[in-house]
Amino acid sequence: MSSITDLRLFMVELPPKVLWGILQSCPFLTRSRLQPVDGDFSWRPVGELSFPLLKDMGLYGWGDALFSSWSGFLKLPSLEVLRLDRVHRDYSASAIAGFAATVTTLMLLPEFALSLGADDLDCLVNLTNLTAVEFEMLNGSQISPDFFSQWCRQQAWPHVVTITFKPGAVLSDEAAEALLDLVRTRRHAASDPNTEICQIKSVTFEKSEESGLIPFWLLDQLAALV
Question: Superkingdom, according to UniProt (predicted)?
Fold first, then answer.
């Protein structure tokens, strides 16, 4: 398996020790997708494991719980893209702590009618070098106004300049207002020459035959700000 560069393991019920062994046999990974089911994640490795070429990783299901138990043992020095389909408040922050500084693109793909809220953002604020955030809303999932409000209050992700909503995005009027407030606040903050906060320069809603629902006035107001 040592020549594998793209590893995808979905709905995996293998013990963490076995998963670790599989990963050990794939040192040249450039992309990975892991979706372990809920289980006992108490096992700890006895040594470090490094993936110097891994640039794009998805942690789905209980992937953050698994990686939380491996925190400090995994080295991902080149990771740029992180994909998450849910945030577990007990695990996510510690799961990504070891590689948070290198990630520049965060893709949030909440499923099963989950709602991203303020607490979820708090778990991800240590991704301090993000420049792009993408949302792919699936199966009725939503973004609450509190998510954008907390982003604004915390001045989180100060280098983000691009926000993308994949087809199917649903935003309430309140969430749209909170998004606009975030963009306005960042625009004002970026005008200060002494700050490192960047202006959000692009907010995109990708369209398809199954486009979601957003307030009719939102795009015009965004166009005046970015």
Answer: Eukaryota
**Residue percentage of the chain with pLDDT more than 90:** 75
Q: What is the pLDDT of residues 181-199, one digit of tens each?
A: 999 999 999 999 888 999 9
Residues 208-224 have a mean pLDDT of 82
48 token code pair: 């470090």
d(CA 79, CA 95): 14
> Mapped to the 3 state alphabet, what secondary structure does the chain carry?
CCCCCEEEEEEECCCHHHHHHHHHCCCCCCEEEEEECCCCCCCCCCCCEECCCCCEEEECCCHHHHHHHCCCCEECCCCCEEEECCCCCCCHHHHHCCCHHHCCEEEECCCCCCEECHHHHHCCCCCCCCCEEEECCCCCCEECHHHHHHHHHHCCCCCCCEEEECCCCECCHHHHHHHHHHHHHHHHHHCCCCCCCCCCCEEEECCCCCCCECCCCHHHHHHCCC
pTM: 0.93
For the chain, the C-alpha Rg in angstroms (whole number) is 18
Second-level CATH architecture of 6-223 = Alpha-Beta Horseshoe (3.80)
What is the overall mean pLDDT for the chain?
91
